[in-house]
């Protein structure tokens, strides 16, 4: 079962072990080769437009950068999921700045600081959020035309990242897709049936998300509690907003086939994800044309993996090492065999049998 969870079939374990081991040590050396950057002080700016970054779109954005006058090696744009906000990437962003990245994270429309805007501007809109994301990518490209730009998305943020990469493939250097929102779980629990019935009886009623965050966000109670206690996390949604979100999730998979073959992609997925059907990753892999793709199946992990201060060290290392391995500093070709054809058809068959509970 352990081998299956790591997406290695018995037939392929022997031929992939050597390449994986070589890639691990090469990546470890690459990470250790940045001691000065790793010790840098990080500045977080929640109002970058007010502080001179007027090239950015006029939306709520968080920016993380080195306090020292050091030119970044790359740009990472982190996209949050349902109910979250850009600030949930604070821990990951601090780690990435230590590796030479400048990090941006917007609040999606209807979430984060948008909740406190006048009623005409506060509504949820994934379509407008996608346009905001594309504008942010263009702004980052204009500011740093010689640097690679990576999109990092979790849950719905992964879905929007796919759509942005499809729309502007020449502007995106790589994708990190964490718990990608591709297929919802179907729940038949008594509490949910009761809540849904109440929503249909009164469609404008706000649906309390807190019990569901506590139950489904993560198997780690620290992560769920942190989310619930965060005042910027949205705690209620209307029936219309829930149905809109469900519709977007269903259609995210349609945008995978247009991701270009030369775009590197990392997919990370926990096998205890109770929010989404994790075996939808199999469909993603079958539709994805990228010749440089890496899949990491995380045993015992739930839905929220990187939108938290409690990122598991293994998960953090996976994301950091993959990004460092794709920087144009020479480390990006850490061993092509480590990122090309990381799994075979038998692996997909084994992966598809995981999580059907």
Question: What does this molecule look like?
Answer:
The structure is a single chain. This protein has 357 residues and is α/β, with parallel strands linked by helices. The protein has one domain: Rossmann fold. The protein has 14 helices and 10 strands. The protein has an 8-stranded mixed beta sheet with strand order 1-2-4-3-5-6-9-10, sandwiched between helices. Strands 7-8 form a two-stranded antiparallel ribbon. α4 links the parallel β3 and β4. α2 (10-32) crosses α12 (313-324) and α8 (210-216) runs antiparallel to α9. The longest helix has 23 residues, at 10-32. The relative contact order is 0.16. Residues 1-22, 330-341 and 343-357 have low confidence and may be disordered.
What would the keywords be for this entry?
disordered N terminus, two-stranded antiparallel sheet, single chain, 10 strands, 8-stranded mixed beta sheet, 357 residues, alpha/beta, disordered C terminus, 14 helices, Rossmann fold
């Amino acid at each position: 079962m352990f081998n299956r969870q790591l997406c290695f079939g018995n037939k392929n374990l022997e031929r992939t072990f050597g390449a994986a081991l070589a890639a691990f040590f090469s990546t470890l050396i690459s990470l250790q080769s940045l001691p000065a950057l790793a010790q840098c002080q990080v500045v977080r700016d929640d109002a970058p437009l007010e502080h001179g970054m007027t090239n950015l779109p006029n939306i709520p954005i968080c920016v993380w950068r080195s306090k020292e006058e050091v030119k970044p090696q790359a740009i990472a744009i982190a996209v949050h999921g349902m109910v979250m906000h850009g600030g949930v990437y604070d821990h990951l962003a601090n780690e990435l700045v230590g590796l030479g990245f400048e990090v941006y994270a917007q609040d999606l429309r209807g979430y984060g600081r948008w909740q406190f805007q006048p009623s005409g501007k506060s509504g949820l809109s994934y379509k407008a959020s996608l346009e905001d994301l594309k504008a942010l990518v263009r702004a980052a490209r204009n500011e740093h035309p010689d640097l690679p730009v990576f999109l990092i998305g979790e849950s719905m943020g992964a879905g929007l990242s796919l759509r942005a990469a499809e729309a502007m493939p020449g502007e995106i250097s790589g994708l990190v897709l964490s718990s990608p929102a591709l297929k919802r779980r179907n729940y038949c629990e008594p509490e949910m049936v009761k809540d849904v019935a109440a929503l249909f009886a009164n469609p404008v009623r706000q649906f309390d998300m807190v019990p569901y965050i506590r139950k489904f966000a993560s198997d780690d109670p620290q992560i769920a509690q942190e989310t619930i206690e965060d005042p910027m996390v949205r705690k209620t949604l209307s029936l219309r907003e829930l149905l809109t979100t469900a519709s977007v999730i269903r259609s995210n998979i349609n945008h995978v086939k247009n991701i270009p073959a030369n775009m590197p992609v990392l997919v990370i997925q926990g096998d205890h994800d109770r929010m989404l059907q994790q075996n939808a990753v199999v469909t993603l892999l079958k539709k994805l044309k990228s010749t440089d793709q890496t899949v990491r199946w995380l045993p015992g992990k739930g839905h929220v993996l990187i939108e938290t201060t409690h990122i598991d060290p293994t998960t953090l290392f996976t994301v950091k090492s993959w990004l460092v391995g794709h920087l144009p500093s020479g480390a990006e070709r850490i061993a092509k065999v480590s990122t090309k054809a990381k799994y075979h058809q038998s692996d997909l068959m084994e992966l598809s049998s995981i999580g059907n509970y």
